[in-house]
Design brief:
Length: about 80
């Protein structure tokens, strides 16, 4: 597909989407994805950020991205 065809198609999609109501855009604008453990309880409460982080480390799969960054020294720092 040529660049021109792609741009024309994109503009047409934008025009159609702007004709939708806000409610329709909200309905179709988000995609729900089940998140194991996080979605299994209606809510959780923690007394501190440290407690929350510990719970994340112990309970959540790494691929969800709630882990802490690796604590490695900066390059050149010794």
């Amino acid at each position: 597909m040529e660049q021109r065809d792609w741009l024309t198609d994109f503009k047409e999609q934008c025009r159609r989407n702007l004709e939708r109501s806000v409610e329709e855009r909200m309905l179709y604008g988000f995609c729900y994805v089940y998140k194991p453990v996080l979605d299994d309880a209606p809510w959780r409460s923690f007394n501190s950020t440290a407690e929350y982080r510990q719970w994340c480390r112990e309970n959540l799969p790494v691929y969800l991205g709630y882990g802490e960054p690796e604590h490695s020294p900066k390059p050149g720092a010794e």
